[in-house]
Structures are given as structure tokens and as C-alpha cells.
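Lab notebook, design round three. We kept the backbone fixed and only want residue identities now. Task for the bench partner: fill in a sequence for the structure below.
Input C-alpha cells:
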């Protein structure tokens, strides 16, 4: 219960401070605060196409340190998983891991399966978050029948979150709540 309260309070503070303003964002994460080192269900909300053109592909690039990602299937869509070799293998539940998921791509099987501009949908994956608190950006490519939008802009010293036209979905990692998360 403490974790839920922490996330709710942080979400309210985030909203009040404007740290992550999603008013201009069009692909966002459903939950924008999570505990470092925890399992996380990343739900990417897609609210429109490219202009009037339907969305036929969503590709999410996982932030560095995110582990064990698994996408949720969608009826009418094919999933492709791109993997990347790890610089140093790690062990997970006694199994040697030498590569990690770096990109997950959902592609509509037919034009009839594409997401019309007038509709809303969600694309979901689960993964383990890095152990360090901080901010994770999840670049998303939205490919439409006509056009493409790369939701990959990041704030910086000269770029405030409100100045971004195509911001990457963002997740704030709070310090771990303690105990073993799985």
C-alpha cells in the first residue's frame, strides 16, 4: 500500500510542478512514476494518427538498464523484438543472459487493422526497471499509412519540457521501496 501511496503522491507532485507536462504529448505512459528496481507495466497511450492518416506501426526503444521486456500481443498486429548484445553478461534466476530487448515493434497486419486517427489504443509491455532512481525516456516511432512521427525529443539545458513538439514518453523512477520486487 505504501508503494501505491508514494506513486500517487509523486504523480500529484509531478502534475503540480509541471516536471513532466503531458498536455502537448500525444504518446504517453499511463503511469509516469514507478519505483526503481521494480517490475513495471508500460502502457503507451496512442491518441491519434499522423494528421488524418491511421497508425500502422508503433516501435518503442527501451531505455538503457531496462531488463526482461515482454510485449503484450494485440489482435491484428504482429510483434517484432530487436535484441542487443550486452557488454557484460548477467545472471537472472540462474540463467546466463547475453543479450537484452532494445526495441519492440507492433505492426498492423492489414490496413483494416491499423489504428484510425479518430480512435485511441494502448500498446503494452512489461519489464524490470533499473535499480537507480532517476528519469527514463522511452522513444517511440509512430508510423502511419502516410507519414511518421518520432516521439523522441528530450528536455535539456536549453530545452524545457513545455518547449518540446514531439516529446519522448517519460517515467520518473523513485527510490526503491525496499524488499524484493519481482
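Proposed sequence:
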Amino acid at each position: 500500500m505504501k508503494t501505491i501511496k508514494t506513486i500517487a503522491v509523486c504523480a500529484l507532485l509531478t502534475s503540480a510542478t509541471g516536471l513532466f507536462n503531458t498536455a502537448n504529448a500525444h504518446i504517453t505512459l499511463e503511469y509516469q512514476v514507478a519505483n526503481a528496481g521494480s517490475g513495471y507495466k508500460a502502457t503507451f497511450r496512442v491518441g491519434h494518427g499522423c494528421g488524418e492518416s491511421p497508425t500502422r506501426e508503433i516501435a518503442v526503444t527501451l531505455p538503457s538498464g531496462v531488463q526482461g521486456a515482454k510485449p503484450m500481443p494485440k489482435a491484428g498486429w504482429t510483434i517484432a523484438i530487436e535484441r542487443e548484445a550486452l557488454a557484460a553478461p548477467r545472471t537472472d534466476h540462474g540463467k546466463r543472459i547475453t543479450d537484452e530487448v532494445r526495441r519492440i515493434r507492433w505492426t498492423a497486419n492489414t490496413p483494416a487493422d491499423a489504428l484510425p486517427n479518430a480512435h485511441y489504443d494502448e500498446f503494452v509491455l512489461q519489464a524490470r526497471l533499473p535499480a537507480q532512481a532517476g528519469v527514463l525516456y522511452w522513444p517511440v516511432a509512430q508510423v502511419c499509412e502516410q507519414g511518421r512521427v518520432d516521439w523522441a525529443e528530450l528536455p535539456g539545458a536549453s530545452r524545457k519540457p513545455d518547449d518540446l513538439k514531439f516529446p519522448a514518453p517519460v517515467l520518473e523512477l523513485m527510490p526503491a521501496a525496499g524488499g524484493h520486487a519481482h
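Keep this in mind before ordering anything: Helices lie at 2-17.
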